[in-house]
Amino acid sequence: MDGIDLSTTNEIAQRIQNFPITKGEIFELIKKYDTKSLCTIAKINRDICKNGPITYSRKVFINLINLCRDTCSYCTYKKELSDLDLSILTKDQALHIARLGKRLKCTEALIVTGERPEQKYPEFKEWLKKYDCSSTTEYIEQISNLILEETGLLPHTNAGTLNYDELSVLKKSNVSLGCMLETASDRLSGKNMPHEFAPSKNPKARIRVLENAGKLKIPITTGLLIGIGETLEEIIDSLIVIREINQKYGNIQEIIMQNHVPKSNTKMRNFLPPSHDLFLLTISLARIIMPHMNIQVPPNLSPNLYSTYINAGINDWGGISPLTIDFVNPESPWPDIKDVKHATEKAGYRFRGRLAIYPEFLLSKRDFIPKNLWNYITPLSDSSGLVKEELN
Asked: What's the predicted TM-score (pTM) here?
């Protein structure tokens, strides 16, 4: 593979900005240039197409219900009724976390649950009746409204494969939603594969969520999990699937490129994580395939590598909490926000807080936002669609 000179880099970057790159062209670039060169192309595209600060969202992680009907081979988030670290938060408990976050200048309430736990656990279905709820989604709706009204934090829910009606309900109280595609490969749902016992991780089910969110004009976060057995071609196919959805609906607000961190007590505990070079390659490809997209890497999953991710074309660090742990990856503590700020500024970029909904939607896609939510968004945002400086 070759290195790349500046004139060639600029020529390729300009071509990508104006015309969506094809799968064949992507493989030609990979064949001809090394990862460092592709990162350079991605960085130029980021600097031109996302000419602004590198952002993050100051959040609290509300681990609402970590029962789940699915079983993924790499996951430790799912708990059983007998586990000591089972989480089924009452309204008061969830509100308490949000209030503490408010004091620490958080603007996002990330609400996370397992996949439809009421379908597998009759005990939980019975528990929901205390709040006159027949489903997890109905309970999320109550929690979201409570947090909005009592704290002003903006809810962002990740609850798996919500159907059209459920998405429609949560749109009224959530400024955005999340549904990780992880992969568009059906192969990973096959026998002895990571998603064999996780029907909600079937790509068709996840793609349907993203498309339904598009039909409903809901800003949605998605992304890929890198290093669970997929091929490079499958990664590229997955990114192209996301691009096609966004071209049709314009509702994908960010792509998370997440590296798999093997966890003890899982079937994939001895599975090698993706190499740093491969992970950087996939980040750069995300930017090359979607030069105008918000591309994020979670800073807690491979700490002290911030500059390499910046040089691969990211423009966002995702949610970072000064209060709560990452319950999906509890072994990976959040970095100090000041350290991420320092690394970002050292790389030559401004570091700014954003809301759980990206500036593009506040400034030019206002029809994606229900009128009632503006009452909560406006006090937090400045004229650029980011968090007001005094709240950072």
From this structure: 0.96
